[in-house]
# Entry
Amino acid sequence: MIYNTQKKKLVLPEYGRNIQNMVDHCVMLEDKEERKKCAYAVVDIMGNMFPHLRDVNDFKHILWDHLAIMSDFKLDIDYPYEVVTKEELNTSPGKLNYSRPTMKYRHYGKLLEKMIVIAADMEDGEKKDFLIAQLTAQMKKSYMQWNKDVNDEKIIADLYELSGRKIQLDNENYSIADVKNTASKRRLKTIKSQRRK
# Structure
């Protein structure tokens, strides 16, 4: 008895050994017209194996590509589609360019630094004050993930530097609240104002 592990390795195992044997039989046929008929029959059987994929764009084209791959590109027929070549299949993928963001302080992250720039360009008012309060609270939270000791002066100094010296807070009078406390205070404020109406 011959086990599957002792047999030739399947190129596309999802089609199974019987389909691979059919493809091998097609390759061995002498007459080109017979090979073509055999190839069309094999592609039909391959398509019947995955009926749920028939709605996929270029489903038939994919099947012909798979037939060419399974035959190790030795099947000499006139394909109805332009199939993938061995060289295209074995080429290494192109280099992926990763974004290398320039961050002043990595522990804050690039999004927080972008938001600080946006806040610095906003007009003075209640929205800007609220955004700055949220940003300083998030900066403190992010800073605490990497450092145990944190003080408000450091956060305020970093905010001043990251905003391009546009946001300057008073070290003595400004205290940074936790994000949860600020959000809950805001919620209470809106609930109270709705009750008054």
Remarks:
- The radius of gyration is 33 Å.
- The chain has a mean pLDDT of 85.
- Residues 134 and 183 are 9 Å apart (CA to CA).
